[in-house]
Design brief:
alpha/beta; Rossmann fold; globular; disordered C terminus
Length: about 450
């Protein structure tokens, strides 16, 4: 079985490498020659734990190759995945230009006996539209839609041991081939769900919108906790123990970001609106999450007595979540830019050493480790919940800072652990240094 992936972004690269690990022959194609050259040399352009080792292993085994040659990659393929970007447009709708560009490029060369699978996140009806697009070019080929549900930072585990695999199909042939390539998951009794194309397409948006609502809901509960004296961590624990709710995506923080939730909630609202369907919950999720960043900026300014001009602010973590170098729509961007506008001197440390972050923040200073980043700091702000930050020696940290002000927007520490600091967290009481009082903020 020969598999080709068009697009070596996050989804295409991880999925292609994992299929090679399953034992299939995989070709990953991209028109970015520099990226392909890096991959051919065993260098991974994204930060994803364990991915580099799998690339080296499967490349050496001869199961995984990288190329810019679309023609050769699809002429003998049994299945071709389209895994290119589908970014948001200014009105919130989905930009499908990369999808159709890729389909157009392969249309003259693709094996007519292959199955073409759209893996990019697309609005309902797109896969069928691609089918019609190809028919207008004289290409009659079986199509399918296979949404991805990979969490950045845990993508390999998610691919190898998924909660479910959703496969939108329209033919017995597509069902047979897709069943074959996902056969290695049968040993884990992974649910393989075959649906219509439209159902599979909507399942991706519905899943991400629901998870985004969970994140937004617990952040709103955190706001309430700060006003009534409850502890959002304990509220989340109580909620998560209910099997109907579950404990994932109930961690209070500065709001969701990344490549999926912002884009997919906006796309779902836009698509539904075009059909005349109102989705007030999705609208409120978007509005509340946008407001969350402003509230975090206000929290920081209040902790700094509304004066950050000329102050040294140490930022720990800037990626939108831990275990990734992804800066797309990260809350840190708005927060740091606001502090810079207020005259703060910012210094950043992020364990991913994200190239994206360096491009985004330009002249801002970056450090090689957390402790050096905190030297002479007037305030330390934790924006991303990297495990490394959980193991910091807070006594050493206090020795290095100018002012023991710790603003933890991920609730990494317990109140007792941070008792030597003027410690501000989310949805919990605040213990001021040298006092025994709990102060609600």
């Amino acid at each position: 079985m020969k598999i080709t992936f068009i697009g070596t972004g996050y989804v295409g690269l991880v999925s292609g490498v994992c299929f090679a690990e399953f034992g299939f022959n995989v070709i990953c194609v991209d028109n970015n020659a520099e990226k392909i050259k890096e991959l051919q040399g065993g260098h991974v352009p994204i930060y994803e734990p364990g991915l580099d080792k799998l690339i080296v292993k499967n490349t050496q085994a001869g199961r995984l190759t990288f190329t810019t040659d679309i023609r050769d990659s699809v002429e003998e393929a049994d299945i071709v995945f389209i895994a290119v970007g589908t970014p948001s447009q200014s009105d919130g709708s989905t930009d499908l230009s990369y999808v159709y560009q890729s389909v157009d490029e392969i249309s003259s060369h693709i094996n007519r006996e292959a199955v073409l699978v759209i893996k990019s996140t697309v609005p309902v009806g797109t896969t069928l539209s691609v089918k019609k697009f190809l028919l207008n070019r004289g290409v009659d080929i079986d199509i399918a839609f296979n949404p991805e549900f990979l969490k950045e930072g845990a993508a390999i585990e998610d691919f190898m041991h998924p909660d479910r695999v959703i496969l939108g199909i329209e033919s017995k042939k597509a069902k047979k081939i897709l069943s074959h390539i996902y056969r290695p998951l049968y040993v884990f009794n992974t649910p393989i769900v075959f649906t219509s194309l439209e159902t599979a397409e909507l399942s991706k948006y519905a899943s991400n919108a629901f998870l985004a609502m969970k994140v937004t809901f617990i952040n709103e509960i955190a706001n309430l906790c700060e006003s009534c004296g409850a502890d959002v961590n304990e509220v989340a624990l109580a909620m998560g123990l209910d099997k109907r709710i579950g404990d994932q995506f109930l961690q209070a923080g500065p709001g969701y970001g990344g490549s999926c939730f912002p884009k997919d909630t906006s796309a779902l609202e836009n698509f539904a609106g075009k059909l005349g369907v109102d989705m007030p919950l999705v609208k409120e999720t978007i509005r509340s999450n946008n407001a969350r960043r402003k509230k975090m900026i206000e929290k920081i300014l209040l902790a700094c007595d509304r004066d950050v001009k000329g102050k040294n602010i140490s930022i720990l973590g800037v990626t939108f979540k831990a275990n990734t170098d992804d800066m797309r729509d990260s809350p840190s961007i708005d927060i740091i830019n606001a502090l810079v506008e207020q005259g703060a001197n910012i210094r950043i440390y992020d364990p991913s050493f994200s190239k994206q972050a360096r491009r985004i923040f330009g002249e801002i200073e970056f450090s090689d480790n957390a402790y050096d980043n905190c030297n002479n700091a007037d305030a330390v702000i934790i924006l991303t919940d990297w495990s490394e930050f959980r193991a910091l020696n807070l006594r050493e940290l206090k020795r290095r800072v100018k002012n023991p002000l710790l603003i933890d927007l991920r609730n990494i520490y317990t109140l007792s652990d941070a008792a030597e600091f003027n410690y501000h967290s989310i949805g919990r009481t605040l213990i001021k240094t040298g006092t025994s009082k709990n102060i609600v903020v």
